[in-house]
Amino acid sequence: MAAVLCPSHKPLYLNIFPSWKGKQPLRFFLLEKLLEARKASVFPTNGEENDEDVNVFLAGLLTGFLRVREDSLILPGAQCVLDPPAKNLSRGAQADHYLANAHCRLLHLGLMDRGDNLRRRSVPFGMTRPEARQRDMQLGATCYAMAANLLGQGRQVNSGLVAVYSKLAEKFPEYVQVLSVLATRHLGLGAQLSEHQLSRLLDEEYWDHAQAG
Q1: Helix (H) or strand (E) run with residue 92 in it
Q2: Phi and psi at residue 13, in whole multiples of 5°?
Q3: What is the reported pTM?
Q4: Is there a contact between 62 and 118 (Cβ–Cβ < 8 Å)?
C-alpha cells in the first residue's frame, strides 16, 4: 500500500522565514511555487491568454497528488483511449474516465518524465523514448479535450472547468514543461544518473582536483 505523504486532512506547512500569517495550507505553498515555476518557464502566466484559473486548478491537482489518491479509472499506455468508457454512462462519468487519465499523464510527464505509474517500462517495446513521450503527450491532450467536450454539453455546464480543461488540452506540452520546472527547481526532483554517468562525473571531478593540485 502506498505511503501517504500528507496524512492529515488539511496538511500545513510553515515558512522557513518568520511570517505573521503562520501556517498556511499546503495548497498555498504549491500555488506559490507553481507561480514561480511559470515565471521561469517558457510558458509564463497569462503569456498568451488569461490562464490564472489553470494555476489554481493545478495547485489543487498537485495537492491531491501528494496525498497519494489512487484512482481506479487510470489505465496504462494508450488503453485509456483504446478502451473508452461505456456509452450508457452519464456524460459526467465518461468525462471522469478521461480526466483521471489526463491528470495522470500531466503530473507524471511533468514531475517524473514518464507517461503513467502503472506500466512497468517507461518506454514500451518497439518505441523510442521520444516516440513514447510524444504518444503520452498526445494522450493527455486528447483526454482533456474529450472531457471538455463531454462536460460542455447538457443543461448544467460548468463553464469554468470546461475552460480550464480546454486550455490544458490546447497547451498540454507547455503545462508539462511548467511542471518540469516546478519539479527540478522548486521540489528537488530531478533526473537519475546511471552508474556510467555517475562514474564519469566522479572521474571528471578527480582530474579537476588533480590538475588544481
Answers
A1: helix 91-112
A2: -135, 160
A3: 0.75
A4: no
